[in-house]
Amino acid sequence: MEIRYEKHWSSYLNRDMEFKIYGSGGKPVMFIPCQAGRFWDFEDFHMVDHWAPWIESGKCMVFSVDTIDNESWAAIGADNRWRIENHEKWFNYIVNEMVPTIRHIAGLANGYDQG
């Protein structure tokens, strides 16, 4: 199984955001870790083993994205407005930066560019 590590700059979060890609073709699947999790949880919790039949057969590509939960919902004791603003920044990163990146990478892997 092909596994790639990538790091892309997020203008919404003003930092590099890390993610991993499992597989080399098929429908894109986005994995978002549980609260306060990280992108490597897909491997650490052995989800790769569960998804291997679909990934290895080229039916899907899994994109394991990172969170900033420790700066938003999991930041217990921090200012609530700050936590909400950070979550909104992360949401905008996912919708406006990560989803287009996934569509582009998956499109190239499947022989077309989805835009």
Structure explained in plain terms:
By secondary structure, the protein is α+β, with helices and mostly antiparallel strands. The chain has one domain (3-109): Rossmann fold (3-Layer(aba) Sandwich). Helices cover 38% and strands 23% of the residues. A 4-stranded mixed sheet has the order 1-2-4-3, sandwiched between helices. β1 (3-10) and β2 (15-22) form a beta hairpin. The longest helix has 30 residues, at 80-109. It is globular, with a radius of gyration of 15 Å. The protein starts with a strand and ends in a 6-residue tail after the last helix. The mean pLDDT is 95.
The helical percent reads 25-40%
Q: Identify the CATH architecture.
A: 3-Layer(aba) Sandwich
CATH 4th-level superfamily: Alpha/Beta hydrolase fold, catalytic domain
Class from helix and strand fractions = alpha+beta
The whole-angstrom Rg is 15 Å
**What profile does the largest beta sheet have?**
4 strands, mixed
Spatial sequence of strands, sheet with the most strands: 1-2-4-3
- Counted beta strands: 4
Structural domain count: 1
What is the CATH topology assignment?
Rossmann fold
Shape: globular
Beta content comes to 15-25%
- Number of helix segments? 3
Detail the poorly predicted runs.
none
